[in-house]
Predict the structure.
Amino acid sequence: MIDLRSDTVTKPTEEMRRAAYQAEVGDDVYGEDPSVRKLEETAAELLGKEATLYVTSGTQGNQIAVLTHCQRGNEIILESDSHIFYYETGAVAAFAGVQTRTINGNRGAMKPIDVQNAIRPADQHFPETGLICLENTHNRAGGAVLALSYMEEIYQIGQSHHIPIHLDGARLFHAAIAAQSPLSAFANYTDTLQVCLSKGLGAPVGSILAGDNEFIAKARKWRKRLGGGLRQVGMIAAPALIALTTMRDRLAEDHEHAQLLANELRQINGLAVVNQVDTNIVIIDVQALNITSEDFVKKLKEEGVLAVTFGPTAVRFVTHYDVSTEQINEAILAIAKVSKTFN
Ligand code: TLP
């Protein structure tokens, strides 16, 4: 099977497995796991933030951020297709008790003027705006990169209203490679951010939540409340450190594969590539074949290629470490064959 459903499917490398086996461990709730400490320190340095916290998943990192920044009854501003709004099972309502103010973006970017206008003035009728969230790269916008200049603009709006900015940087590593800018340049325009180690970087488990010392101390408590205080977690932090330190540069290869895939899919009758391919995600629309994305994905699986539906007629492909150039070429042939059967 050629698995293009997500970069979350990447499996740990030999080196990561060895690191897990050899990891020095301790009880991380006591702050005594050297492998976790090393991971958190390395991540803080890379991101240019005072402190970081190793959390179990991107979703947990985002939720802890909302819980730490906000009070119940706050409103948070976020893009209508953002992961926090779209894919986190309503957790911001269930846990933090905040309401969402969604704004439609263009390629994942809300217009700064719309963000500015959505901030609540002081009035006893209104909820207080507790947080502005960004996502870079933006998943549902097809891995779109938010430019540094855009992030700066939103950050300044936040600053001028004393509203923190949280970045869902699940794929910030991809953005940094595509923009040829360091991670810290992006992190500089956020108060807090979450980056996933278990997507393109291939770590088996975990994300990093970053911010200043005070934020991370509070976030640590929220992690504990949520049952995320882990013990000999160096077993997974050690491979995560390998991912963080050795797997970033090679993401350029995944981006090239996505370009190759998109260029070839554009030539296939009945398929439309709907996103501008900035990074490792390609989204196609199969509407012209008069079928649903579900039909398409099912048929494609019979041909040995896995993808996910991304709307009634949209299908998403994600390139990653475990897919070679040959496999991308094989996938293109399979997609062409399936499209032909419906044409
Ligand atoms: N995204 C997954 C699915 O949940 C949709 C995927 O296959 O792309 N932020 C962003 C932008 C994400 O894309 C994801 C995962 C997360 C957060 C959540 O990360 P995890 O899965 O570690 O909770």
